[in-house]
Specification:
Layout (H helix, E strand, L loop, with lengths): L9 E6 L1 H18 L6 E7 L3 H8 L6 E11 L5 E9 L9 E9 L3 H11 L5 E9 L12 E5 L5 E2 L15 E4 L1 H4 L1
Parallel strand pairs: 2-3, 2-5, 5-6, 6-7
Antiparallel strand pairs: 1-9, 3-4, 8-9
The structure holds inosinic acid (IMP) and magnesium ion.
The site of magnesium ion has 3 residues, from loops.
Amino acid sequence: MGMIGIHSDIERVLISETEIQTNVSKLAEQISADYADNGQLVVVGILKGSFIFMSDLTRRLTVPHRVDFMALSSYGQTTTATGAVRIIMDLRVNIEGRHVLIIEDIIDSGYTLHYLLDMLRTRNPASLRSCVLLSKPDRRKVDVPIDYIGFEIPDVWVVGYGLDYAELHRTLPYIGALKPEVYQ
Ligand code: IMP
Ligand code: MG
């Protein structure tokens, strides 16, 4: 028999399933309105963290769009930054002359998104914007323009709704703060 309640590695639920769904719907509405007159929208999900957010968000878009993914690596198995951003898997869709919207799970230092925006800009998209589910403003090291933000959160390690700690907890339906003893 399973226990009722939150996972034992989770200290508290930061954002409930309902709150997530409400803001994802709002983001989809806003994005659909902003791209209403633009054809050729390519929505680019950054794996793996964005996979659940990406699928909920794109299914609520009311404008035509292509879906593609990139996989990057900026962190190892821990919560400490290693510095370098690597492309593990590149886009399949050609973005030249198309409107590109990047979907990220979370922006922390900003290095990942900064690198990605610079890199994709060299491919000459018609426009390039970013949408993140979560932002930790206190942690920012580099100034990155973010066009759509789901939630601002404090400087705690969060998991669930796609986000992991050492590849665990990605499929929790809520965003939870990890107990410090789990990653210390
Ligand atoms: P940045 O380059 O420092 O902005 O880091 C962004 C990446 O770090 C995200 O795409 C996540 O993979 C990871 N990350 C940062 N904070 C968290 C967190 O609290 N939980 C899970 N992943 C995180
Ligand atoms: Mg990520």
